[in-house]
Write a structure and sequence with these properties.
Layout: H1 4-8, H2 13-22, H3 39-47, H4 73-85, E1 91-92, H5 105-112, H6 115-118, H7 130-147, E2 151-152, H8 159-173, E3 180-184, H9 189-202, E4 205-209, E5 223-228, H10 239-247, E6 251-256, H11 267-270, E7 274-278, E8 294-298, E9 311-315, E10 321-325, H12 332-335, H13 348-386, E11 390-391, E12 399-403, H14 408-417, E13 420-421, E14 423-426, E15 429-433, H15 440-449, H16 491-503, H17 525-528, H18 534-537, H19 549-566, E16 570-572, H20 578-595, E17 603-607, H21 612-620, E18 624-628, H22 638-647, E19 652-658, H23 670-679, E20 683-688, E21 707-710, E22 730-732, H24 773-806, E23 825-828, H25 830-836, H26 840-849, E24 856-857, E25 864-867, H27 875-896, H28 914-918, H29 928-932, H30 952-957
Parallel strand pairs: 1-13, 3-4, 3-5, 5-6, 6-7, 17-18, 17-19, 19-20, 20-21
Antiparallel strand pairs: 2-8, 7-8, 9-10, 11-12, 12-15, 14-15, 16-22, 21-22, 23-25, 24-25
Helix pairs in contact: 2-24, 3-24, 4-19, 4-24, 5-13, 5-16, 7-13, 7-16, 8-9, 13-15, 19-24, 20-21, 24-27
Length: 970
């Protein structure tokens, strides 16, 4: 029977032999070398340095693996079912930013479970991303409208990290010289904990105040956080606090519930500068903590301070409106250590779901849902008061705080026994939250717990009530007035809208996305199956441990497996993006040095070729960045490294390196590099972005790494989802384990291996985006240790095959010893531009006409393409890409030869839309056939981009980041 690994890896045995032969590697037992080892192993020995090379787990003397032998797809699903059955889905009434919600089936089936949406990548090639960009601009419009602020970004990682980013934005934008940030005493507890982690690293002083209770602000401050409504449920008018903060030159950040804002006055109308929060309750399951799309919106004048992605409107080559990512010059991948945020990914897939929830329901539907929630909360309040309970706050939206002196734990325990999860605030206080899924039967059961009537007749309940909201804070202005929020009420219309958007995009379901450093591998259907199972999807992240035994067991297994394959001792799955994993790892190093009394160690060495997030993360961890040069081969310059170590030896905290390097080669002297840092008292952070080139053949811990983050959305098959979700677990050696991120609301303190993590949290939920962890669990379980190793070899083989076949047409910029690359290769297009005038942009856009997503452009070297095929692509697709690149080189040569004018040829005019071929007279120097069908195979399956090449500069000069009027598309 065919194994899962055989289904996942696209290269067949026959294809592998052909590719190896092209690389000059003969089959075993050939006449040339009858004693030769397997040629794929010979390739890996040529590429991976002998000093770190690891044999297969099945080899003699190999330690027993904790990873079981590969399971079939049916067996893996059966094991996941067994784990799921160990979870108990009770009625969630804990609140704290996580709520039951009803995902419309049309959205679950056509977005969350649709590979056209979940296998797409960040829209850096906007011409082939117009569908998801439109969905994101809908998202931005929703957030801007509901918050009453001018500009919203395309999502944040979660609410708590969004608050932290709001705090940092306030520090940048405030004209106050104070170092004080005031935190609302009624803020979410997980947010307070995360703020302490982030503030401590960068020297911000947090001051807590009971703002609703009238506590005065400090005389000096740079910012204030207001929770609206509060964690206790309290709704109050913050205008006096906002005015006082502004008088002190502070920036006001509100953490606001978007569903409540359909009824409540917007933060913008109250005078707030920034609003942050989550869109989880807009149809996105709780998923034991994530992934969910956080949000951030700002008033006019703060747009360039926004972290994360920002979608804007520009025009294409013929003036047609087109969407693209705006103001990219402010982002970490460009600004590096000067970046204002280290966030690299967003939560696009979840933002799309939330935006479509609002599109489907429209403003009236959202208002009705909110009114029903508020009304039910008010009914519960009445029943509780009738029972003699003391309800603490008179004004609330969906959450009630009840005082029961000395009996709170008993009430919560009894509720749990009855299948209801309430919040234990303290020994005397219980919190109860109502959501979209709460029924009157649930309300009655809760009231009975507090001594209410055992029997009750439920009458008619209208949804027009404002519940217990104060009249002075009721919203009066309109929102979501754009036609898109009124046009798709029927399921038929919604289904067609989602299909129309998906058809405008290019994702893995259309063809290869050969993005270097991004690892766009297959997200197999069996891996995806469990994420919508209620036992995983409908768990509250703060549910009692006995309710989530299955998820905790799965997390323990995955932590152990990841520790083994990386050579580390402990793993935290909490970071919900690679950038947050970087930050967590550096904070662990910082904590280790502080614990040892080395308070002066704050210098982080980073190679000039590193990912932009590395430098940004180091700054956010309170470190000073010192750049290390790279040599002409793309390796870390050892002489410069030793000089920088000597210069900063007393202050050296860490070295951050990526292995294999960002240049796509295995550095031969990596052990010398890590040893030099350790000898100077520093720690080594190995960026795990390129682990797909190493898994099974070497381990970060063995080559000298002390800590690493891993990208589960790359090496371990979690989908990129159009730019998120991402998960960036952090793995460390035992001496750093105590400083990995913990969480005050975690269900248990111990992790796999018996380690306890005492570092501060870096995500809102204890296990981060736990809702998609079944994907990586299933990937490892079905691949097994040998399958993971085979995947690495297949990825490296494909990259070397591409480099070999294209090197006569495009120089391969960097290779390691034996002239081999790792899992990706960098093609140098600068000679092409010099010889023909054709740029890297022209080649990237022309690839669209050939039916491809372009490789990574101009990273890490300007004017280059970094190509990574991954192990998932078969030889036919790899050859199709190679042939397209060869033909494009010939087209460029034709321009240089004068066959086509420099300003009118198929490259500079690419991509070509269907409309451009049929509108008016064809007046170009090349034919329609050359434009549309450069190879005959495209006739049968052509992807048509919806817009021509987009004018990026125009969009930055004319910033529009909300839904444009329909007339713009006339």
């Amino acid at each position: 029977m065919t194994s899962f690994a055989d289904r996942h890896i696209g290269i067949t045995t026959e294809a592998r032999e052909r590719m190896l032969a092209a690389l000059g590697l003969s089959p075993v037992g050939s006449a040339e070398d009858p004693t030769a080892e397997e040629p794929i192993e010979a390739l890996m020995r040529q590429a991976v340095p002998a000093s770190i090379f690891t044999g297969p787990a099945t080899s003699a003397g190999a330690p027993q693996s904790s990873i079981p032998a590969a399971a079939s797809e049916a067996e893996a699903l059966a094991e996941l079912r067994a784990l799921a059955h160990r979870n108990t889905v009770n009625r969630p009434m804990i609140g704290l930013g996580y709520y039951g919600t009803l995902t419309p089936s049309v959205i679950q089936r056509n977005v969350l479970e649709n590979p056209s949406w979940y296998t797409a990548y960040t829209p850096y090639q906007p011409e082939i991303s117009q569908g998801r960009l439109e969905a994101l601009i809908n998202f931005q419009t929703i957030v801007a409208d509901l918050t009453g602020l001018s500009t919203a970004n395309a999502s944040m990682l979660d609410e708590s990290t969004a608050v932290a980013e709001g705090m940092l934005l306030a520090r940048r934008a405030s004209k106050s010289k104070s170092n004080v940030f005031v935190v609302d005493a009624d803020a979410l507890p997980q947010t307070k904990a995360l703020l302490r982690t982030r503030a401590d690293a960068v020297g911000i002083e947090l001051v807590e105040r009971d703002l609703a209770g009238g506590e005065q602000l400090p005389d000096e401050l740079f910012g204030v956080l207001v929770q609206y409504p509060g964690a206790s449920g309290r709704v109050w008018d913050p205008r006096a606090v906002i005015d006082a903060a502004h008088l002190a030159k502070g920036i006001v950040v509100t953490a606001a519930d978007l569903l409540a804002l359909t009824l409540l006055r917007s933060p913008g109308s109250l005078g707030a500068d920034v609003s942050v929060g989550t869109t989880q309750r807009f149809g996105v399951p709780m998923g034991f903590g994530g992934p969910h799309a956080g949000y951030m919106a700002v008033r006019a004048g703060l747009e360039r301070q926004l972290p994360g992605r920002l979608v804007g409107v520009s025009v294409d080559a013929v003036g047609y409106p087109a969407y693209r990512l705006s103001l990219q010059t402010r982002e970490q991948h460009i600004r590096r250590e000067k970046a204002t945020s280290n966030i690299c990914t967003a939560q696009v897939l979840l933002a799309v779901m939330a935006s479509m929830y609002a599109v489907y329901h429209g403003p009236d539907g959202l208002r009705a849902i909110a009114a029903e929630v508020a009304g039910k909360a008010a009914v519960l309040r009445d029943w509780l008061v009738e029972a003699g309970a003391e309800v603490v706050h008179d004004a609330f939206f969906d959450t009630i705080t009840v005082r029961v002196p000395g009996a709170a734990e008993t009430v919560v325990t009894n509720a749990h026994a009855d299948g209801i999860l309430l919040r234990l605030v303290d020994a005397d206080t219980v919190g109860i939250s109502v959501d979209e899924t709460t029924t009157f039967t649930d309300l009655h059961r809760v009231a009975v717990l507090f001594g209410g009537k055992q029997e009750r007749v439920f009458g008619f309940f209208g949804s027009g009530s404002a519940g217990a909201l104060p009249e002075a804070l009721l919203r009066e202005d309109e929102y979501l007035t754009h036609p898109v929020f009124h046009a798709h009420r029927s399921e038929t219309a919604m289904m067609r809208y989602l299909k129309q958007l998906a058809d405008r995009d290019y994702a893995l379901d259309r063809g290869m996305i050969p993005l270097g450093s991004c690892t766009m591998k297959l997200n197999a259907a069996t891996e995806m199956a469990a994420i919508t199972w209620p036992e995983f999807a409908q768990l509250h992240p703060f549910a009692p441990a006995e309710d989530v035994e299955g998820s905790l067991a799965m997390i323990d297994q995955l932590e152990a497996w990841l520790a083994e394959v990386t050579g580390y001792d402990a793993v935290s799955l909490q970071p919900n993006a690679g950038s947050q994993g970087e930050l967590a790892g550096l904070l662990a190093i910082r904590g280790y040095h502080l614990a040892n009394g080395d308070t002066h160690r704050d210098v982080c060495l980073i190679p000039s070729s590193a990912h932009g997030t590395n430098a940004a993360s180091a700054v956010l961890a309170g470190m000073k960045v010192v750049v290390v040069a790279t040599d002409e081969l793309g390796n870390v310059d050892l002489d410069d490294l030793r000089a920088k170590i000597a210069q900063h030896s007393d202050a050296l905290s860490a070295l951050m390196i990526t292995y294999p390097s960002t240049h796509g080669v295995y550095e031969q002297q990596v052990v010398d590099i890590t040893s030099a840092v350790h000898d100077a008292g520093g720690q080594v952070y190995v960026d795990g972005a390129n682990l797909n080139a190493l898994l099974g053949y070497a381990r970060f811990g063995d080559l000298g790494g002390d800590v690493s983050h891993l990208n589960l959305h790359k090496t371990f098959a979690i989908p990129h989802g159009g730019g998120g979700p991402g998960i960036g677990p952090v793995a460390a050696k035992a001496h750093l384990a105590p400083y990995l991120p913990g969480h005050p609301q975690a269900q248990k303190s111990e992790h796999a291996g018996g380690y306890v993590f005492d570092g501060g949290p870096v995500s809102g939920a204890p296990y981060g985006s736990a809702g998609v962890l079944p994907i990586s669990w299933a990937y490892v379980r079905m691949m097994g240790a040998e399958g993971l190793r085979s995947a690495t070899a297949a990825a490296v083989l494909s990259a070397n095959y591409i480099a070999h076949r294209l090197r006569d047409h495009y120089p391969v910029l960097y290779t390691g010893e034996n002239d081999r690359v790792a899992h990706e290769c960098i093609l140098d297009l600068r000679p092409l531009k010099e010889a023909t005038g054709i740029t890297v942009d022209d080649v990237a856009k022309r690839l669209i006409d050939y039916g491809f997503h372009a490789p990574t452009m101009s990273f890490p070297v300007a004017g280059t393409l970094m190509v990574e095929p991954t192990e998932s692509e078969d030889l036919a697709e790899v050859d199709r890409f190679i042939d397209a690149m060869i033909r494009i080189k010939a087209e460029a040569d034709a321009v240089a030869a004068g066959t086509w004018p420099a300003d009118d040829n198929p490259l500079v005019n690419a991509p070509h839309t269907a409309a451009s071929l049929i509108a008016g007279e064809w007046q170009h120097a090349y034919s329609r056939e050359v434009a549309a069908y450069p190879v005959h195979a495209l006739v049968a399956a052509k992807y048509w981009p919806p817009v021509r090449r987009i004018d990026q500069a125009y969009g930055d000069r004319n910033l529009v980041c909300a839904c444009p009027p329909i007339e713009a598309f006339a």
